[in-house]
Amino acid sequence: MKPTPYALTLSLAPGIGPVKARLLQEAYPEAEALFEAPAPDATWPSLSEWKAYAQKASQLLEKQAEANIAALHIHDPAYPERLRHIPDAPILLFVKGHMTENDSKCLAVVGTRDPTPLGIRHAKSWVEAMQPYHCTIVSGLARGIDAHAHHTALHAGLPTWAVLAHGLHTVHPAHNRMLAERILHSGGCWISEAPYGVAPYPGAYPRRNRLIAGLSDGVLVIEAAIKSGAGITAHLGHQYNREVFALPGRIEDVRSQGCLDLIQRHVAQLVTAPNQITQALGWSQVMPTAVNLDQWPEDHRKIWQALAPEALRPTALSEATGISATRCLAILAELLWTGDIKVSHGWYAQNQKRD
Hints:
Blueprint lengths: L2 H10 L5 H10 L3 H5 L11 H20 L2 E5 L7 H4 L7 E6 L8 E5 L6 H12 L7 E4 L5 H12 L3 E4 L13 H9 L3 E4 L11 H11 L3 E4 L7 H11 L3 E4 L7 H11 L4 E2 L3 H8 L16 H9 L7 H8 L3 H13 L3 E4 L2 E4 L5
Parallel strand pairs: 3-4, 3-7, 4-5, 5-6, 7-8, 8-9
Antiparallel strand pairs: 1-2, 2-6, 10-11
């Protein structure tokens, strides 16, 4: 059995978490040897149960492939390097969309689901301030700070990853479905450790938060109560030796108490300006570079040249270039990822000078 279906088979067995699954796969490189090994206790699956889990794993992988969901084994070269090195990294990571680690620049932005107007302004302005560094914004697609971080990343032309607490066959919360689709169309992705068909449940969210922390170089908490998912993400980031930052907020506001607590406990650094984050992470701005357009595919050149006079929406681009709308969106996603174009409220424009 290949490593990916083997790993999913282990994940489907009750009582086997990510750490135990990795240890078992290392101890028994061949699945058959594990399935036929003596049972260590009464709860251990029988051979027939292992075969049933293996069959289900095969079916799930087929469904995921049909839905364009990739399954990345922890030893797969495409598996995110940052995540690979946390102690409880998932043995399998499921990805829908485009996930390429971006020059080692990833910032998690998290916070309350019920932000103040000030928190919303901070989410927007601090993510916008990351635009010159062309970092990836990682968050959990929840309402509130998460959603505003994703929205602003899209408007700023930054890659953004939505880390979900359920299978990638759906989006939760449902009212963020359109935002989730925009993330895919912009060249970002959805990420989860849950297999296809797994619904969200309360205990999945803290587990999801470790992925947000593990995928990132740093974690920024904008507003949070003392007991909150954002606080869990911050503590996990601290445990994983990530840089953790928190905005102090107003001391009388319950939505600032979590940030103040993180600062007081020395889990997070107090920050009052975005450049304190980029300096702490050692990031430098991405400088525009000239590229010979002759090296580009013809359709990419057509779209680039059509954007020269003014910003356009995808429909107008398709009409101007004669390229199908689907193909236009795919190329726009590529050009956004490389920083060659930018997007604001659905309008695309050139972002750099070209030869």
